[in-house]
Amino acid sequence: MNQIAIITPVPDVIDTLITNSILRKAVERNVVKFHIVNLRQFGLGNYRQIDDAPFGGGSGMVMMAEPLIKAIEHTTGLIGRSEDAQVIYPSPQGETWSQKSASQTSKLKKLIVICGHYKGIDERVIDRYGIHEYSLGDFVVTSGEIPAMVMVDSMVRLIPGALNTLDSALTDTFTYDLLDHPHYTRPREIEGLRVPNVLLSGHHKEIKTWKQEQREQRTKGRRPDLWKIYKKKN
Predict the structure, then answer these.
(1) Options 3.40.50.970, 3.40.1280.10, 3.30.380.10, 2.40.30.110; which CATH number does 2-166 get?
(2) 159 and 2 Cβ atoms separated by less than 8 Å
(3) Whole-structure pTM over 0.90, yes or no?
């Protein structure tokens, strides 16, 4: 069973996302166990302070090192210390998260995710734990819970047993270095719009060829950057 701990000052947000998504199914199937750690419990003083003004001046606040260190140490006690345990932190300064990142992370049996806020977290925490920083893209959001759960969802669905069939996850967009092909379901026709005949033919080889052609056409038209990479590999 994979163990994922999420450190956050707003645990209700994480709990809601888990309860109302495929992640709940993964928990029920004993594929993954979540530990939601409330950072406020490790805050300083009567007000459970977790942030302070940055040294050197500047606007905004920075999440303090002491509460985070205490939270991480508490969390490693929950999931158990292990060489394969990893701490990740969604950050605009990080490596771009990808399907490859999700696949690699899904193989970790123990994972700690830090949800950042404000201007980010004290750099000494990153240095101390060798934290891996990942970014969803070149933009900034106000809450670290959203990118954290995007990353968690994308990796958990790749763990065997999380979905009804792993084949579904293994044929998604980016799995072949290409965008996915179009999908259709019943009815065969609606308001004059028909399902492509090849998908109704029963000829598996022709269907496979059609799907590959559609993947390539979509990628070439919509993501020329991915298409260049794909052509170099093939």
Answers:
(1) 3.40.1280.10
(2) yes
(3) no
